[in-house]
Each structure stands twice: as structure tokens, then as C-alpha cells.
Amino acid sequence: MKTRPFLFCILMAAALVQCTPKTAKQPAPALSHTGNITISGAYALAPVMKIWIDRYQKDNPYVKFSLRVNGTGEGLKDIQSGKSDLAMVSNDLPVNDPSLWIVPVARLGVVPVVSARNPYYMDISKKGITKEDFLSLFTGKNPKSWGELAGRGSKDPVKVYVREDSSGATSTLARYLEITSGQVKGIPVNGENMLIEKVKEDPLALGYCNLIYAFDPYKK
């Protein structure tokens, strides 16, 4: 198998931008970089990758990027089969795999999310949800209703949505709950964007997402 770089070009571009003084006048390069770069993989890294691509293309407009956001599992398959040049991976990797060049570029954070139309939102935001209750909700073992979580008597069920594709978000959530990814249970949804949409549509939903999807990375 041909050895493939992993995020090296993008990381180098970011480092060069950071090291260039804003006030320094740089000579125009004789020839901009050219070529096509295909990237695929994790939803968690996609928003950051888009920013890196935009910044890189300001100095190298003749480099064309194809970015496919299809999840960590598919990203790994693409890089190992030669379908992509770079893979975005947000999960644990086999560090002894000689065919992969691994470069850490970010730290992964995961947050639980609910609909803004959740009738218990104000109560939950004040009271919070304990780790033990999260564990019961995301494993399906004697979960409480929204009313019980909010300190009310109602029995509206908590509709838990989870990623059915291989994702670093699920692995991170599982580590926090001290269980395995296979023990995370709920209504399966493919991909981060679809999970977020399901939660937005369902007032009684509970899900989770990578922290970068909880805010605008451009406006911060």
C-alpha cells in the first residue's frame, strides 16, 4: 500500500500562517502550488478543515480541494484504499500501522444537546443532569422521563438519538460515561448533521455533538 500523508500539508500551511508577522511585507511567490487534494472523514474536523482550506487557497489559488464529510470510519477506508489523500479521523487509531502518518491537530470535545423547544429546558438548565442519569439515558437502563429529570410529575419520555456510524463523538461520550461505544444505545442516525437536525425537530430529544458544531467557528 502506498504511504499516505495525514493532514501534513494543511498543518504546515497553518503553521506558516501563524509564523508570518502581520506587518512584514512578503515577496510574491514565483509560482503558486498547484494540484488536486482529496480529503474525507470526521465531522468533528470538517469545520476546522474548511477554514484551513480557505486560508491556504488565499496564497495558493491553483490548489483545488475536494472535501467529503462522511465520518471517521469512511475516512479511514478512503485513505487505506487510496481514494483520498488526507483523512480526518476523530477516533483512536492503530499507532503501529506503518501505512499511516498520523498528525494530531486538535482536541475533541463532545457536548449533549436538546431542542430549544424542549418544554423542560428552563428546569433542566437550572438543575442540570447528573452523570448517573446520562448513563441510564444513553444505555437505556431504567432511564428517567423528562418530568423526573426536571423534578416534575410528568412522564414525557426522553428520546435519545445516537450516531450509528463510527464516530469519535460516540467514543468520547462513552469514555466519559465509563462504558464502551457499543453500549451507547438510542435511535440510530447516520452522521452528525442528521443527528443535530433530529434533535432540533424533536422537542423531547436528547443527543450529542462535537463542540465545534455548537458554535460558529468563523464568528467564534
Supply the key terms.
4-stranded mixed β-sheet; single chain; elongated; 220 residues; 16% strand
How is the topology of this model organized?
Elements: H1 8-19, E1 35-41, H2 46-59, E2 63-69, H3 72-81, E3 86-88, E4 110-114, H4 121-127, H5 131-139, H6 146-150, E5 159-163, H7 168-177, E6 187-189, H8 192-201, E7 205-210
Parallel strand pairs: 1-2, 1-3, 5-6, 5-7
Antiparallel strand pairs: 4-7
Helix pairs in contact: 1-2
Could you walk me through the main structural features you see in this protein, from its secondary elements to its overall organization?
This protein has helices at residues 8-19, 46-59, 72-81, 121-127, 131-139, 146-150, 168-177, 192-201; strands at 35-41, 63-69, 86-88, 110-114, 159-163, 187-189, 205-210. With 220 residues, the protein is an alpha/beta fold. Strands 4-7-5-6 form a four-stranded mixed beta sheet. Strands 2-1-3 form a three-stranded parallel beta sheet. Strand 5, helix 7 and strand 6 form a beta-alpha-beta unit. Helix 1 crosses helix 2 (46-59). It starts with 7 loop residues before the first helix and ends in a 10-residue tail after the last strand. The model is unreliable at 1-24 (pLDDT under 50).
